[in-house]
Amino acid sequence: MSTNQQHTVTATVATAAVLAASVLLISAYRRRERRLAGTLPITSRDVACVAGPVKWTKNALLLDGSSVPLSLASAEFHPWRVPVGDWEPILRSYKEIGLNCIRIYFHWGFHSPSEGVYDFSKDTQHDMDKLLTLCEKLRLFVIAAPGPYICAETQGGGHPFWLAAKKDIRLRHSRGQLVKEYDMEYSFACREWFEAILPIISAHQISENAGCVVLCQIENENFEKLKGLPFACVDDMRFLARVARDCGITVPLFHNDGFESGSWVSHEKPPKSVRSFGLDLYAYDKYVVFAPTSSPEAMIRGMNPQSSTSWPEWKVETIESTMDSMEQKVRGYGGCAQTGPMFIAEMQGGWFNHYSVKSSYDTVYDFYGEDYTRLIYDSSWAQGVTLINIYMGYGGTNWGTIGDPDVYTSYDYSAMIREYGFISGRARKMRLALSFYRSMHSAVVSTERTPWREQTVVVTPRRILNCQRISTGDERAELTFFRNFASARTTSYRAVLAKRPRVSLNGRLAYKRSFVALGGYSVSTGGAGLHLLFSTAPIHLRMHTKVAGRLAEVWVVQNDSFAGGEMAFQGEVWVVRGSESLGARVSHVREANASVVSFSGTFGWCALATPAAKETNDHVPNELLVLCLPEDALYTLATSFEEGHWLKRCGIAGEERGGPQVISAAWGAYGIRHDIVSRSFTVDWQNKEERVFCLFAATYAGFGNFGFEPLADKTHQLYGFPGLMVKARSKPKLSLPDAHIGTFHGWTSRPVDFGSFDYVPLELIGRDKSVPSKDCFDLGFASGHSIYRVTIPQTAYKPSPATKLVLSINARHRVTVYANNRVVGGHMTYSLQLLQPGSKQGPDWFRDSHEYVLTDKELDNTTGDNIVHVVVESFGLNRQPFVVDDVRNKRGIWNITATARAAADGVLSPLFARRVAIEVAATGVDVVSGIANAYNVCGFPDEDAGPVGGWDATAAAVVRNGSAVEIRGGCATPRWFKGTLAVAAEASAGGAHVPVRLHLEGPATAHLWVGGVYLARYYGNGDCVQHDFYLPRSYVSGRGKLDMKLLVYGRDPDDWVTVEAKRWEIEKGSWSGNLQDGGDICHFVSENF
Q1: Which SS3 state, helix, strand or coil, does residue 384 take?
Q2: 21: which DSSP letter?
């Protein structure tokens, strides 16, 4: 055979092989598709929202048959991370930010301690009827998300322990990694949960006269397909949707895609290639920039920055590539993704933090910066998204063991509202965005994107103009989305109006900031009015006040070094009055028949009018009032909104156009809340604040002015502004002498008596006889600590100076070893990287054995058996995300062996090593079999009952000057401590609020309960960065003394820990809310007018 013939044969064989492989792959794909498509006779139409109270258009929701579009400005709220007494203050802060909605993940495991048992106890953290009633009281819409799977960095993704312990049930139908197979038993369990929670939710569905729930989410991030490959069981979604309808849910159903992958899109004419199933609306999650410790590189390559100083700046290209083609991609899925509103169910509002890293949530906050959430929000609206839920609005606390291994006690999330309730600069920047979108709602809610070549403005330098949209609703405007990603990081830019004689406007916008520039807009009050061509000066708010008995439109604008610019109007416009401090002036561009208004100042006001109005001395109907506030005042600008739906329900007549109504705009204090329904006006004062300024909207001026008076200070920059009112504080300033805020009393302690526990004997099995015959699920120890008693019989090993015993332990996650009741060391197996021992997410397949050398000094029982106790703390069950099957990753001890070796290491010593037979038994707290609150126990069996002899007031605890508990010399064995903490009265008396933290220092480990709540897990050796633990406001308010309890242990007998009660000291000169020793003490005192 010739060479050419050989090549021909080889090519033919290779081609045949490729074709055969392709056929096999296609066949396997089709088999997988058919298997996952399911057989349940439930169609999209069977569960569609047909006659419910909520309809929708391509741009928004419609309520109660109204034609007024509703957009949702929502943020996530987890009631199971927030004490019930703190629900209302936090949700009032949501509304103060400008939000009109919250999404609630209802936590199955939190409510179901055992199969068939559901806890919705009245007036407790489990009372979901109370929460939904509160939302109705506060006039907040609700997106209900009952799961059954919720993810949310909580144990098991929200599955109850009793269900996870049933190993024959496939949670989320997972048969293994990346493989799902429908499991009806799992669906039946989900139905049990839905039948418990959905009647509560359905009773609060929106209607004309009742309810708050507008949407209901089914499951979470359950990809139908991933990169074209089928992954989800279609019958799963069919079944859940059917049960939801059967349980009375009449509002639209949706699912949140993990990202834009087109999952569960309903079609009028389903594609013929698959047995399609979809829900009413299409929604997806949008997480854009990952913190370096959670980045794909960190998870795959193990690139784990341990120091905050090494964190690189996030790249603007990430946002451009991730956000700027979103609308085209989503609409391209067709069906409800094309005909319904653009909907982001989880828009990134921060990020969570992990064990083992050195960076804190303050590091995470600084990494993203104050403007990040608004930047993503504006970029979403630029893509036509009008339903947005920010994850998180307020993170809260992973009290007890409710968090999964991804997160520790704090769930601050670097969110808009920090864990201790501080409304951060990020929230205040978002509030400005919401002030614009909601006050301009009728012009911004229904839009179409302008093709690039048809845009009416050209901006230089490049990468400052994002895109432009044109209003298609009742009110018309051009919306130009600015986002400064300029390569040179310049602040200044120039905007030139196209399609007309040249009109050029200067502008300023700080790098990585955004705003929406208004143009093509006619002022809505008065005769011929004014027509705005374009404004590079950010307009943060539009409202109306009365001047001489007539309506006048007010714009609140900004013109400083961070953001500012000019305004171009059609025709001639004049500055007819105002303050000199603003320096408003007009340049007429004759050839373009336009007027450009510019400002030389940053703080002041002016009135603009047409020449006709000026000449006839009747300028009032055509007057536009421009109020310019500097950035420090804008941080405090609080606009009170109410949706027309709620006003109608409360019998209050609003503006004819409906939609969000501006009630008032006020600034000058940390917190301002105006409630038109209860006719209350509340100001939260910091010590440095003296007075509040307010503009009451003309439509609602008859609802009281709360003692506000016209500004009389002629030297003030805003003197003379029509309708501006001011009120001085009458509440005295708080006395804040230093950081310490509490005293400790009556501290006693007792040792943990390992010998008093009941143990379950375990056989060691496996090829090397090292695997305990029962794992933590078998024993019920699915959470917290498990304790292993390792008996070294004297007949198997007798200690001597010539030998040593090496105990090899492979366990998850934290191990502390005690030999004959004295600590000998410990270790942690935990990884941020995938496919590593102790991986926080994904499969955990590999050994990570650590050796403990026990000499005759540790094994000093020469007349009997030596006993070693191994305390293993689990960080919780993994949460089973996406297509990963990791909820049942093993916990506790995986492998344990004992080997006798020569005391002196040498070349030949391994030859003389021998295995030593050991006896293993385990104990802990069974959280699977129905304990009332499985997340509130740490796993030590003696948590609630001490040994004979009780508590000792003299052992190991020292109260230092009453301001701290200092524990030294008590870590040879674990010890319990208890006592009381008295918090200074100013923390909560007389409307005052001074957030309190428990500050822990020292190398020991401490688990801490306050008032019976497992509040903190502290790891002083560096396994976790957290040292400061928030003491919730409701715990402090109105209580004289707080009962406290600690479990303390360490890896060295001399380990120690101190506990102090301190005020929250925060970064000076900043709205970050970041902790700073010696910084400003966070505080405010509330005053009701």
Answers
A1: coil
A2: H
Q: Please state whether the peptide bond connecting residue 881 to the residue before it is cis, i.e. omega within 30 degrees of 0.
A: no
Give me the helices (H) in 799-885, please. Answer: none
What is the radius of gyration, based on Cα positions, of the chain? 32
| Burial of 393 per CB tally in 10 Å (0-12, 13-18, 19+) | buried
> What whole-number distance in Å separates Cα of residue 143 and Cα of residue 391?
13
CA angle 769/770/774 to nearest 5° reads 100
Both tokens of residue 297? 């590189």
Tell me the one-letter amino acid at 586: V
Helix (H, G, I), strand (E, B) or coil at 110: helix
Q: Where are the alpha helices (DSSP H) in 340-381?
A: 361-368, 372-381
What beta strand segments (E) does 110-236 contain? 141-145, 174-176, 179-180, 213-217, 225-226, 229-230
**Pair type for strands 760-762 and 919-924:** antiparallel
**Helices assigned H by DSSP within 98-148:** 108-111, 128-138
423 touches 1067 (CB < 8 A)? no
What pairing do the DSSP bridges indicate for beta strands 253-257 and 213-217?
parallel
SS3 call for 219: coil
Q: What is the pLDDT of residue 956?
A: 64
The C-alpha angle with vertex 301 and arms to 298 and 302, in degrees rounded to 5, equals 55
Question: Is the Cβ–Cβ distance between 169 and 177 less than 8 Å?
Answer: no
| Cα angle value 475/479/481 (rounded, 5°) | 155
| Pairwise CA distance, residues 6 & 8, whole Å | 5
pLDDT in tens, 314-348: 999 999 999 999 999 999 999 999 999 999 999 99
679: which DSSP letter? Answer: T
Q: Which residues make beta-bridge pairs with 77?
A: 104
Residue reference for tokens 């700073």 = 1076
- Weakly modelled stretches of the chain, pLDDT under 70: 1-34, 270-275, 302-309, 525-528, 613-621, 654-657, 907-909, 946-949, 954-956, 985-989
Three-state secondary-structure class, residue 142: strand
The residues pairing with 643 across neighbouring beta strands, listed in sequence order, are: 660
Q: What is the dihedral of CA 15, 21, 27, 30, to 10 degrees?
A: -100
How many C-beta atoms surround the C-beta of residue 143 within 10 A? 26
Question: How far apart, in whole angstroms, are the C-alpha atoms of residue 86 and residue 419?
Answer: 11
Tell me, what's the pLDDT at 502?
Answer: 84
Strand order in the sheet with 760-762: 760-762, 919-924, 784-792, 866-874, 814-819, 822-828
pLDDT score of 619 = 45
- In whole angstroms, what is the distance from residue 766 CA to residue 772 CA? 9
Question: What DSSP designation does 733 have?
Answer: P
- d(C-alpha 425, C-alpha 57), whole Å: 34
Helix (H) and strand (E) counts in the chain? 20, 64
Percent helix, strand, coil in the chain, to 5, is: 20, 35, 45
Q: Name the residue among 517, 508, 432, 512 with its Cα closest to residue 468.
A: 517
Does a cis peptide bond (omega within 30 degrees of 0) precede residue 1044?
no
Q: How many angstroms separate the CA atoms of 540 and 732, rounded?
A: 32
CA-to-CA separations, 740 to 963, 993, 1035, 1037, in angstroms, rounded: 7, 15, 17, 17
Would you give the end-to-end CA distance of the chain in angstroms? Answer: 102
Residue type, 623: E
CA–CA gap between residue 626 and residue 618 (Å, rounded): 18
Task: Using DSSP, state whether 744 is helix, strand or coil.
Answer: strand
The residues, any chain, with a CB within 8 Å of residue 511's CB and separated by 6 or more, are 484, 485, 486, 489, 490, 491
Distance of CA 343 to the CA centre of its chain: 18
Dihedral sign for Cα atoms in the order 164, 169, 172, 174: positive
Helix (H) or strand (E) holding 193: helix 184-202
How far does Cα 682 stand from its chain's mean position? 27
For residue 578, give both structure tokens.
Answer: 């105002």
pLDDT attached to residue 305:
47
